[in-house]
């Protein structure tokens, strides 16, 4: 038994070096109970448009697995759209720090959100993970915005929008857990 496990592990390590399609990888993960092999193909499948799946993929993915992938993709897409279309910004009653040019700050924030962040979220081929949003915003140049206001908005986002920013990663983790349970 021990030898067989070693053999499977050796084959797995060899196959990991090949560029194996994620669907094929997942099939082997299920067949040989390679639990470590589940996460990467799931992440790859979730960022591959369904239209890029081939006929061979369809025969190797059973319907329940396909449905988990497809519904997770749909939920992720909704979460991404929601965030891309609604730039978070504290309302005027929340006027800390005191700022004399806050209308300009808000304008710069919205413009950058739609023109830079929104475009990255909606990019048709390059996947931009939502979890990187705070880091991207921090690095982005918000010329014309009071730096204190920018810092305030970033802290406010971490506090109030953390669950929305982590939504994509939570959905991916949920899919991985469900598939782990299906395979065990
Ligand atoms: Zn301001």
Count of domain modules: 2
- State the end-to-end CA separation: 18 Å
Radius of gyration: 21 Å
Unreliable stretches covering 5 or more consecutive residues: none
Secondary structure category: mainly alpha
Average of pLDDT? 86
Count of individual helical segments: 10
Helix content: 55-70%
Listed once per kind, the bound small molecules are: zinc ion
% residues in beta strands: under 5%
Give the oligomer, counting copies of the same chain as homo and different chains as hetero: single chain
| Series of secondary-structure elements, N-terminal to C-terminal | HHHHHHHHHH
The general outline is: elongated
Task: Provide an overview of this structure.
With 184 residues, the protein is mostly helical. The chain folds into 2 domains: 21-86 and 167-184, no CATH class; 89-160, no CATH class. The protein has helices at 2-17, 22-31, 39-46, 55-60, 63-85, 102-122, 133-139, 147-160, 162-165, 167-183. The chain is elongated. The relative contact order is 0.13. Zinc ion (ZN) binds next to helix 6.
């Amino acid at each position: 038994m021990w030898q067989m496990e070693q053999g499977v592990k050796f084959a797995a390590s060899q196959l990991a070096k090949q560029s194996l399609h994620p669907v094929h990888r997942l099939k082997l993960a299920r067949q040989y109970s390679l639990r470590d092999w589940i996460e990467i193909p799931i992440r790859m499948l979730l960022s591959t448009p369904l239209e890029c799946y081939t006929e061979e993929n369809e025969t190797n993915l059973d319907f329940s697995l396909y449905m988990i992938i497809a519904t997770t993709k749909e939920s992720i897409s909704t979460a991404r759209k929601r965030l891309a279309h609604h730039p978070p910004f504290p309302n005027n009653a929340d006027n800390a720090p005191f700022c004399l040019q806050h209308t300009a700050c808000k304008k710069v924030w919205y413009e950058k959100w739609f023109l830079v962040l929104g475009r990255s979220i909606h990019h048709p081929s390059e996947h931009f993970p939502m979890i990187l949003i705070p880091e991207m915003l921090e690095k982005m140049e918000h010329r014309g915005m009071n730096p204190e206001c920018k810092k305030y908005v970033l802290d406010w986002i971490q506090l109030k929008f953390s669950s929305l920013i982590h939504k994509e990663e939570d959905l991916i983790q949920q899919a991985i857990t469900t598939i782990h349970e299906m395979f065990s």
